[in-house]
Amino acid sequence: MLLKSKLVIVSALFTLATNSLLSNAAEQTRWTFDGEIHNNSLALSPDESTAIVSISDQPKVIVYNLKELNKHITLESYITPRNIIFSPSGNDFYVSDSSLGVVNKIDTQSLKTIAQMPLGAGAFGTTISQDGKTLYVNNQAASTVTAVNLDTNQPKAVITGFAQPRQGVRLNPQNDKLFVTNFLGDKITIVNTATNKIESEIKGFNKLRAISITQDGKTLFAANSGSNTIAVVDIDKRQIINTIKVGKDPYGAALTPDGKHVYSGNLGDNSLSEIDVSTMQVTATINGFKEPRQAIVFTHDGQYAYVLNVDLSISKLDLNSKKIVQTFNP
């Protein structure tokens, strides 16, 4: 009963804050508390016609039309955009801004903000459930994760017990476990989504960055930028079972749709490392990028990857030829 009362109070405050933000957007106080923490983000629409990108150093979000080379629209009014994610339907997408402390829900066709969710300064990584009903938002400053009911755009739970959760947050394919990266302590926290309670953690990473999870929910890949490796985690055992040497300063650990390869975005040497999952060996190093990080997204057929560069251009990579075949420029 006490928990329900707290959520009612949080929901009421959330509504008041939302109304205030929407009506006084031009007057809101802007505070950049985390300017030394850098990341980028790339979201691909379900129909693969649109890519939306940001880098936290630049106060804008760019929407690319992937059917027409270099046709794009810039969305302003951001300070530190952190993560972008589409709803499963593709009708809207969500942009978090850690300095403004909000997540914006934006209509894909009109590009108008249709809801603004004030979650506190530090709103960072996001992921959405397969049914499109729940959005999970890391808060780096408060060390919490908020579960938002997307039918009402209201919070339904605030989960505590983390240590600077930033970009990395993923649901397993079964959607019963939420995996949250903690920058402090270099660990991954596992949350039971039925109870919104932390049930276990995995330790032993080195400057933990992006993560991905196999379709069977048994294996997790994580980028260790501190040791230039990709860690391979046995999820059932809750332990790292292998590490694979990749390029310099890896941020990405992106798993292809067929689960056969993992791609590491190596910030330090402007490359991608391709890992064969069956052998756990690097099979190719692909050059020609500009400080790639975790923003690596694949087409559904697994033929291409879109990779975001530091200048907010997108490189379209043919995964068969291992060559960049197209570049979209801002």
- Note poorly predicted spans: 1-6, 8-13, 15-28
Taken as a percent bin, the fraction of beta residues is: over 45%
Q: Name the structural class.
A: mainly beta
Q: End-to-end span in angstroms? A: 51 Å
Q: Helical residue percent?
A: under 10%
Q: What characteristic shape results from the CA principal axes? A: globular
Tally of extended strands? 28
Give the number of helices: 1
Mean pLDDT: 92
In N-to-C order, the SSE pattern is: HEEEEEEEEEEEEEEEEEEEEEEEEEEEE
Radius of gyration computed on alpha carbons: 19 Å
Strand order of the largest sheet: 1-2-3-4
Describe the model.
The strands form seven sheets. The chain has a four-stranded antiparallel sheet with strand order 1-2-3-4, with no helix packed on it. It has a four-stranded antiparallel sheet with strand order 5-6-7-8. A four-stranded antiparallel sheet has the order 9-10-11-12. The chain has one helix at 2-23, and strands at 40-44, 50-55, 61-65, 71-75, 81-86, 92-97, 102-107, 113-118, 123-128, 134-139, 144-149, 154-160, 165-171, 177-182, 187-192, 197-202, 208-213, 219-224, 229-234, 239-245, 254-255, 261-266, 271-276, 281-287, 296-298, 304-308, 314-318, 323-328. The chain is globular and about 45 Å long. Helices cover 7% and strands 48% of the residues. Mean pLDDT is 92; it is low at 1-6, 8-13 and 15-28. With 330 residues, it is mainly beta. The chain is built from one helix and 28 strands.
